[in-house]
Amino acid sequence: MTTAPGATATAAAPAPAPREAHAGAVSDDAIRTRGLTKRFRTGQVAVDGIDLLVPRGAVYGFLGPNGSGKTTTIRMLLGLVAPTAGQVHLLGAPMPQAAARVLPRVGALVEGPAFQPYLSGRANLARLDAVDASADPRTTRTRADAALERVGLGAAADKRYRQYSLGMKQRLGLAAALLRPRDLLVLDEPTNGLDPQGTREVRHLVRELADAGTTVLVSSHLLAEIEQVCTHIGIMGGGRLLLQGTRDHLTARRGSRVMVRTPQADAATALAELRRLGLADATAERPAADGSVTVSAALADDTGADGDLPAPQDVAGALVRAGAGILAFDVRRPSLEQVFVELTGEGFDVTR
Ligand SMILES: Nc1ncnc2c1ncn2[C@@H]1O[C@H](COP(=O)(O)OP(=O)(O)OP(=O)(O)O)[C@@H](O)[C@H]1O
Q1: Which residues line ligand 1 (CB under 6 A)?
Q2: Which of the residues in the chain have pLDDT under 50?
Q3: How far is the CA of 69 from the centre of ligand 1 (A)?
Q4: φ and ψ at 93, to 5 degrees?
Q5: Would you say residue 352 lies in a domain?
Q6: Shared domain check, 65 and 186
Q7: What pTM, to 2 d.p., does this model score?
Q8: Is the Cβ–Cβ distance between 223 and 44 less than 8 Å?
Q9: Whose CA is nearest to atom 7 of ligand 1?
Q10: ipTM of the complex model
Q11: How far, rounded to the nearest angstrom, does the alpha carbon of residue 104 sit from its chain's CA centroid?
Q12: CATH classification at residue 215
């Protein structure tokens, strides 16, 4: 695991470029692809016409089972693999044409050539720093030490890379991506090989970087691991982008149900009111031991479209106005895993 050479600052890179100022929607997005496709020589279509949209400031969870095309997509974003078809814009500029200008502003952690095994973590970072034409060699040590501290490798700075555990190697890759301030970070499976503590630390780091204004795309095949830290989610399956949007939207509507507990005497009123509101599948459960009845209804159809269905707070208001007593009110949201399974009919496993 290491940073992609092309994705970190290189000798070819000029001084940091000003923010791109192109007209149109493209300039507002950190990453935008159109019809991005990769067909390998084996004939396999690893990535199949995807339109990725990562707004600036987002933490975009790029999720999908093993083999779904995440790494291939990321390699195309960074210009490490040539697409068979489609376009990539990074920070508003077309790739690979603008690579020399844009890539110094992009930090990346992707699978790639290894660090030097006989050099220490610090020396490896210094080596990477040295090829960055815009980095002042007098402050290399400070930058390397700050990056090592940031990923919790301060105490292991002088250990040789070959003596690092998998998790430590992963952390060093992250440190390399953080050697200088970035507008965009692309992290491919950053929690690979990390223990639960390390995974928490990566989440914390991602949140910190995002708070400081960096856009982050982070891939994982483990939904639960990064779900909590993301503002946006894209789910890959079989080379296709199955779903994309803000996390809240994806789980707020698709498959969410409003659950209302009413006194038994009010159950019929509540049920009628939910149906009047357009919640056609409203049903009432049997009365509980305490005499209350739970009435529930889906807040979206099974495609996730909410059409003109009311928001939860409007449902509560309408029930009160209709005279139905409310003992408890809840909106059950599905987990992302449930959304994924519902969408694909399969688990989060290797399918090809
Ligand atoms: N160089 C290559 N030549 C041929 N096929 C490849 C090549 N690289 C990847 N593939 C295939 O493309 C598909 C997508 O692989 P990719 O590594 O992009 O998936 P991924 O979602 O990143 O998986 P993981 O979570 O396991 O890293 C897989 O079926 C893989 O076998």
Answers
A1: 40, 42, 44, 46, 64, 66-72, 221, 352
A2: 1-26, 302, 304, 350-352
A3: 6
A4: -120, 145
A5: no
A6: yes
A7: 0.75
A8: no
A9: 40
A10: 0.96
A11: 22
A12: 3.40.50.300
